[in-house]
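Re: the 180-residue chain
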Amino acid sequence: MLKKLSYFIFLFFSINYISSCSTNHEKEIKSVEELSIKVKLLQSTFEAVNMDDVKFAKNTYKINMDKISKYHESDSIDYEFSHTLNLYKGIKKKGKNLNENHSKNKRNIELLISQLEKLKSDIQNNAIQTDSIQGFIDFETKNMTKLSDDIGTFVTDCEYILETHNTYAEKARGYTVAFN
């Protein structure tokens, strides 16, 4: 009887030991899934920007500024015109590398989504050593934070361009009509 009890205790502890050694990584998989959700939210924010409206605002700015520089006389500029023009010129500053930033952010979103899917798959298939998993998650978190900052700047710049266009484009166009 004592032998059977010892055998049963040995078997019980062996099964517990073996089951504790199996890697489930539910916590890590959940972390990767949360990162994926955050990236998809960033993607939807990024895609909400209407680039056609932004391009229209930039083109209108260029046309208006070309006409103003062609027809105005610098000694006849009043304060209101100068103030409006200075605010309107913010479109040029914010729109400087906008197309490149749009392409870069779009590519980085797609890349990060792909990386997170592969990381999740690798974790589920035990393709990564257990002690390295958190390092990969931290690296992807850092990438997501950088992407979030880049997209935030991009969206803010686009909103500034659209708001400035809506506020000052007609005033600037009015000055070009006055010069003709």
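The first helix runs from residue 2 to 21.
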